[in-house]
Write a structure and sequence with these properties.
Length: 264
């Protein structure tokens, strides 16, 4: 593998075939994801079966209720602007953080790259934590945030909310990240009323997503991009897209060998 790190987060890994990873490769990538948050694999030529097999090296696959599955590959979902008259909307978020045990990893593989636009942005949530004012960080110590689902219809058996630490220790790196999601899914912070929660979430969200804390990925044919949901937020920039933008997404539980005590 040839690894090039980017700032303020992310890494580009070349000279690797994702269909032929050994156990040592998976271990190395797990560490790289925990350290850098996002890993870009350019020049891959995976089909959906190979993409699914790659994801399974990182844990059990997870599917989000309400998404459109890929035909014949029910563990993957389609992300597409084809046939839409208005651009999709995307805000910085963590995938499925309303699960008690959210998926550790999300990955996208390109199917159709638009002629212009369609980048994906990622924030460094370790850096968001480390650059908090000391007094604010102390105020957040020990507090939890209730994450809730929005925008999809669930059955009575589906998870719809979960409580997580605002300052979350990563189970692989041991570093602390600021763990929140899009404000609409941040229902309440322990010890605060609704107005105080809203004000603090908006402040933390703005702090996390400052331009100097973002990596912006411009997609190319053959790209596979994987990220660690424990230390980044992400969003797609649908403004200015020219042409079809189609990707297939999968999520994996990850952290199978991590110490559960690090999750709190």
């Amino acid at each position: 593998m040839i690894i090039t790190r980017t700032e303020p987060l992310g890494a580009r890994v070349e000279d690797v075939d994702l269909t032929r990873l050994g156990d040592d490769d998976v271990s190395a990538l797990t560490g790289l994801l925990a350290a850098q948050g996002v890993v870009v694999f350019p020049g891959q030529r995976l089909d959906d079966a190979e993409f699914t097999a790659f994801l399974r090296r990182f844990g059990r696959l997870v599917f989000t209720v309400g998404e459109t599955p890929v035909p014949d590959h029910p563990d993957l979902n389609v992300i597409s602007n084809v046939g839409r008259t208005t651009a999709p909307r995307s805000t910085f978020h963590v995938d499925s953080s309303y699960f008690a045990a959210p998926p550790a990893y999300t990955a996208l593989r390109t199917v159709t790259v638009p002629r212009e636009g369609g980048q994906t942005e990622f924030s460094n949530q370790y850096r968001a934590h480390d650059t908090l004012e000391a007094g604010l960080r102390e105020r957040l110590e020990g507090r939890t945030l209730t994450h809730v689902v929005t925008g999809v219809e669930l059955s009575d058996d589906d998870e719809s909310s979960a409580v997580h630490p605002l300052l979350r220790r990563h189970p692989v790196s041991g570093r602390t990240s600021l763990y929140l999601t899009t404000p609409a899914r941040c229902a309440s912070i322990s010890g605060l009323d609704a107005e105080q929660t809203k004000e603090l979430v908006e402040r933390l969200y703005a702090h996390s997503t400052r331009p100097d804390n973002l990596y912006r990925h411009a997609w190319a044919e053959g790209d596979v991009v994987m990220w660690d949901n424990g230390c980044v937020l992400h969003r797609a920039d649908h403004s200015g897209v020219v042409g079809d933008r189609v990707m297939h997404r999968g999520m994996a539980t990850g952290y199978a060998t991590a110490d559960p005590g690090l999750l709190v």
